[in-house]
């Protein structure tokens, strides 16, 4: 589903974030991306959604080479991807409903369709009763779940998550992992960056890609 072939990324100023990275994430898999801070995890995720472009090598999504995808085709790629950030990037002056609706508004879906799909997404993360709240009124764990609802609202094939449990305690992290597991069970492919070592122990049956100073090794396979 996602394949990297000899992918390197150097940022302007010469910082080499990734070096000749090769990996393949099969469709339907749930995998962890590990490595110390600065190892290149965020960069790798950003390359998949074309927020950043590789300096060298090829990235395939569903067999399409997206490494040099023309700018006007990026929305087509993003339609297949749900992206979850550690700081959830929610709009604090909009309701939970509107935050989750955002990707559908961009796709110019009808109000009816938006209502149906946002309700379904909020129901999945257990926040239907918070639809009219502002994110600012919610706890950290609830805010993260709003971010997850927004990421899954347009039914993406792939979920990319960058340290989604980074600011949460163990119980809330377990909740988030359980949500991911449920999405994975219905066929969503998941790649999650984390350096949470307690999570790694608990989920050591998952495929795991480990980045060290921009180089990748696969260390387990579910
Ligand atoms: P991680 O997510 O594992 O912490 P990152 O992918 O954020 O790692 O960073 C990898 C390396 O690339 C680091 O050395 C970081 O400083 C550098 N880097 C990340 N983003 C940029 C950027 N926009 N410009 C320059 N260097 C960057
Ligand atoms: P699909 O595989 O969805 O049936 P096609 O193979 O007919 O799509 O491709 C239609 C156009 O959309 C092509 O230009 C292709 O490059 C682009 N495209 C299709 N799927 C993706 C994707 N996941 N990421 C990027 N571009 C895509």
Automatic annotation (TrEMBL):
<protein>
    <recommendedName>
        <fullName>Cell division ATP-binding protein FtsE</fullName>
    </recommendedName>
</protein>
<dbReference type="InterPro" id="IPR005286">
    <property type="entry name" value="Cell_div_FtsE"/>
</dbReference>
<dbReference type="InterPro" id="IPR003593">
    <property type="entry name" value="AAA+_ATPase"/>
</dbReference>
<dbReference type="InterPro" id="IPR027417">
    <property type="entry name" value="P-loop_NTPase"/>
</dbReference>
<comment type="function">
    <text>Part of the ABC transporter FtsEX involved in cellular division. Important for assembly or stability of the septal ring.</text>
</comment>
<dbReference type="GO" id="GO:0005524">
    <property type="term" value="F:ATP binding"/>
</dbReference>
<dbReference type="InterPro" id="IPR015854">
    <property type="entry name" value="ABC_transpr_LolD-like"/>
</dbReference>
<dbReference type="Pfam" id="PF00005">
    <property type="entry name" value="ABC_tran"/>
</dbReference>
<dbReference type="GO" id="GO:0051301">
    <property type="term" value="P:cell division"/>
</dbReference>
<keyword id="KW-0472">Membrane</keyword>
<comment type="similarity">
    <text>Belongs to the ABC transporter superfamily.</text>
</comment>
<keyword id="KW-0547">Nucleotide-binding</keyword>
<comment type="subunit">
    <text>Homodimer. Forms a membrane-associated complex with FtsX.</text>
</comment>
<keyword id="KW-0067">ATP-binding</keyword>
<keyword id="KW-1003">Cell membrane</keyword>
<feature type="domain" description="ABC transporter">
    <location>
        <begin position="2"/>
        <end position="221"/>
    </location>
</feature>
<dbReference type="InterPro" id="IPR003439">
    <property type="entry name" value="ABC_transporter-like_ATP-bd"/>
</dbReference>
<keyword id="KW-0131">Cell cycle</keyword>
<keyword id="KW-0132">Cell division</keyword>
<dbReference type="InterPro" id="IPR017871">
    <property type="entry name" value="ABC_transporter-like_CS"/>
</dbReference>
């Amino acid at each position: 589903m996602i394949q990297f072939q000899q992918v390197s990324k150097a940022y302007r100023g010469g910082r080499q974030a990734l070096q000749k990275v090769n990996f393949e994430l099969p469709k339907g898999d749930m995998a962890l991306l590990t490595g110390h801070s600065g190892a290149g995890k965020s960069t790798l995720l950003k390359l998949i959604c074309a927020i950043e472009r590789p300096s060298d090598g090829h990235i395939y999504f569903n067999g399409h080479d997206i490494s040099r995808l023309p700018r006007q085709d990026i929305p087509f790629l993003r339609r297949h991807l749900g992206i979850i950030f550690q700081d959830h990037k929610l709009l604090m002056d909009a309701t939970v409903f509107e935050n989750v609706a955002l990707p559908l508004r961009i796709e110019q879906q009808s109000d009816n369709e938006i209502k149906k799909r946002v309700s379904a997404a909020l129901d999945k993360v257990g926040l239907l009763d918070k639809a009219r709240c502002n994110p600012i009124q919610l706890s950290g764990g609830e805010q993260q779940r709003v971010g997850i609802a927004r990421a899954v609202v347009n039914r993406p094939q792939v979920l990319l998550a960058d340290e989604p449990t980074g600011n949460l305690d163990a119980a809330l992290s377990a909740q988030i992992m359980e949500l991911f597991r449920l999405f994975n069970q219905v066929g969503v492919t998941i790649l999650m960056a984390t350096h949470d070592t307690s999570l790694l122990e608990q989920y050591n049956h998952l495929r795991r890609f480990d980045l060290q100073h921009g180089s990748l090794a696969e260390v387990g396979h579910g």
